[in-house]
Every structure is written in C-alpha cells, then in structure tokens.
Design brief:
mainly alpha, about 75% helix, about 150 residues
Length: about 150
C-alpha cells in the first residue's frame, strides 16, 4: 500500500507546473518548487515505509540494485555529485545549497529532482505507468497553456 501512495505523490508532483500562488512574492515560481519538493519527499517517505513494512520490498530493493548498474543512473549520479561539490567549494556554499527565495534552485532542488528520478525509475516498472505519467503531464501542460 505504501508503494501505491508513493506513486500517487510522484504523479502529483507533475501538477506543480499548473500552480500559480498569487499570495507569494513570486507567484510563478515559489508554489511550483514548494509543491514539487513536498510531493517528492512525501513519495520518498512512503517508499521508505514500504521498504520497511511491505511484502514487495524485496522486489523494489532488487530494482534499486539493478538501477545503480545502469549507465544513465551512474551518469546522473555523477552529475549530482559534481553539482553538489561545486556548490560546497564555491564562493557562497550556503546560497549554493539552499538557493534564494526567488529562484528556488540549488543543491536542495537538484537532490529533489534526483530523488524523483530514482523513485520513478524504481517504482514505475510498466509502460502503462509511464504512459499515465505522460498523460498527467499533458493535462498539466494544457492547464498551464489555458492559464497563459
């Protein structure tokens, strides 16, 4: 059950594109990255609960081990590591990791995107799940186009 909830939050993370928070100083940015981070990290929490309690944990642990032998995961992991190292050894490591309110980019956002990447690659093991994610993305794009 926890893995299904985790998948739900991954699907929900796509809907960050359609958010416009008029109550913030930067309405087209802040709500998006806040929603994305919250949904991905909630997905991670439920994934970890599933690893501890669910009967399908061995299946997903096997998928994680297999993932880290994949060239694309190795390349993305190396990029994330280099990005974080560059930030920590830069002029302002604090700002490099946490970023600022206006942009929302930085090491924390890169870790969030990386977590999303790993969770999707682990949990979505059927083509129909990827198709459903694409359809959600398409609906969100239409919502944003309509707002624009």
């Amino acid at each position: 059950m926890s893995f299904k909830i985790s998948k739900f939050f991954l699907y929900a993370s796509v809907f960050c594109i359609a958010l416009v928070t008029t109550s913030t100083l930067f309405p087209f940015i802040v709500g998006k990255y806040t929603w994305f981070r919250a949904s991905v990290f909630l997905g991670l929490i439920f994934f970890l609960i599933g690893i501890i309690t669910d009967l399908k944990a061995d299946h997903y642990l096997g998928r994680i081990k297999k993932l880290f032998r994949s060239p694309i995961v190795i390349a993305v992991s190396a990029f994330v590591l280099m990005f974080l190292l560059a930030g920590f050894f830069g002029v302002d490591p604090h700002n490099s990791f946490w970023s600022n309110f206006e942009r929302g980019e930085g090491g924390l956002q890169i870790l969030t995107i990386y977590t999303s990447f790993l969770l999707m690659a682990t949990l979505f093991d059927e083509e129909r799940q990827w198709s459903k994610l694409f359809k959600c993305s398409f609906v969100v794009a239409l919502l944003m186009i309509g707002y624009g």
